[in-house]
Amino acid sequence: MSTHAAEAARRRTFAIISHPDAGKTTLTEKLLLFGGAIRQAGSVKSRKSAKHATSDWMTLEKERGISVTSSVMQFPYDGRIVNLLDTPGHADFSEDTYRVLTAVDSALMVIDCAKGVEERTIKLMEVCRLRDTPIMTFINKLDREGKYPIELLDEVERVLDIPCAPITWPIGMGSRLKGVVHLLTGEVHLFEPGKNLTRQDSTIYASLDDPALAQRVGAEVLNEVSEELVLVQGASHPFDRELYLAGLQTPVFFGSAVNNFGVQLLLDFFVEHAPPPKPRDASARVISPDESAFSGFVFKIQANMDPLHRDRVAFLRVCSGSYEPGGKAYHVRTGKEMRIGDALTFMASERGLAEYAYPGDVIGIHNHGTIAIADTFTAGEPLQFTGIPSFAPELFRRVRLRDPLRLKQLHKGLTQLSEEGATQFFRPLLANDLILGAIGTLQFEVVAYRLKDEYGVEATFEPAQVVTARWVKAEDGGALEEFREKAAIHLAIDATGALVYLAPTRVNLQMVQERWPKLRFEATREHA
Ligand code: GDP
Predict the structure, then answer these.
(1) Residues near 474 by beta carbon (within 8 Å), at least 6 away in sequence
(2) Which of 21, 30, 69 most suits a substitution to test ligand 1, by most atoms within 8 Å of the C-beta?
(3) Is the ipTM of this complex over 0.85?
(4) How confident is the model at residue 481 (pLDDT cuts 50, 70, 90)?
(5) 36 known member of a binding site
(6) Whose alpha carbon is nearest atom 16 of ligand 1?
(7) How many whole angstroms from 150 Cα to the centroid of ligand 1?
(8) What is the mean pLDDT of residues 17-28?
(9) What is the pLDDT of residues 112-149, one digit of tens each?
(10) How far apart are CA 359 and CA 362, in angstroms?
(11) Residue whose CA lies nearest to ligand 1 atom number 17
């Protein structure tokens, strides 16, 4: 096997999906801790520790208690290289989350044991299903009273329609939580709050029948769990790696992220069984991670990631070959060779220059506006990776600037923020104002906040008489020119320079489409 194929085989690239508050941030921190990526356990939400998880960089996030941005965290564990791609938790950022999910090979689903399967989890699961993404499940907060474990498995199977294969099983719950039993090894790991930082710290018994264990936790609770396990084994499924890899079964773990309990058992199992990079469809053909020629696609763009580095970073998932410092790559959309020699990697909370990157890894390419979401980079072959979703904005606002002298900064800010893909901005042909389109209302608040924080521009948003946007295309240049003149009042230019019809009402749009049969009115900007 070539070096890069061997490197690809030890990559584990995944994202955590959950409903807000289930414990994603806490679990992320514990995984980083086990991976040696951070040294200090401390709430990610308390910002006093210098080494907080990178997912939390924005002040806004602290204020609102939501994850607004995504980031990438890489750490070595047990001979593997783990890439954890963070996803924003709030529903208004689902578009961003969907794109992150196109860049991972598997997912980890976190469920609150008291709340069970929640609404966001259901939506994210649907997205994972589109690509048959393998999913592991962590049922969290076992230190609190929750639903019965059997009931939780039943809920996952019923609501999410995926068979469960429990790998660990809790002994008690809430104040009676004693530990978990590993159903494949038989080992019992005791729950000792404040003492489970590493495997060595936690007391382990060889099996449920160990007399020393009965002495420690009492025979009664062990009898209870043994009886329960008979039921579980009858009602659930044994772990089947093929089914898991096909997205047809989810291995389930129980634990308490905040107490570091059950997390390492999950991580050990994860690095062993979760899939390495898979071949990917690039329209003309399928690209295998074993191919030596470099290829990858951009799934996310972020402006001003780090206040110390005011730049725009394009996040590229490597699909084949390897990235080396000083290298160049072919930017398929523009047909140009591009220097990507100073790409970034994301070792936990620090950005550094990428040494090498292999399939499954993510690199950050410095970008001055030429790279767009879904762009493919190759060693020269004109390929296009497929399946990166694009959504039309559903809400529109007119941007009002407090200080007219800041117009240039406003343009710059809106252009750069719209490159991230969460919002789109339009300049009407006939008016001097600007229209911003978004999927969710929270995005307007985020844009207003970031304009002020990152570009020093104070802007407010007012209702705009626009219900939907259509990108106008035509083979017939004459018809397009005529339309441009006649419909100018409703036409605008988007951040990429494309012509867009901003429809004031649905009826108006329908009439315009009927009147201009030679034109195409497209509901999404094509990501290609
Ligand atoms: P996120 O919104 O999914 O990222 O959730 P967080 O990780 O921020 O957790 C939400 C809340 O649940 C926080 O107050 C955590 O301290 C708490 N939490 C996380 N894990 C546990 C756990 O295992 N037990 C208990 N009791 N609370 C937890």
Answers:
(1) 480, 483, 518, 519, 520
(2) 21
(3) yes
(4) very high
(5) no
(6) 258
(7) 22
(8) 92
(9) 999 999 998 998 898 899 889 999 999 999 999 999 99
(10) 8
(11) 23
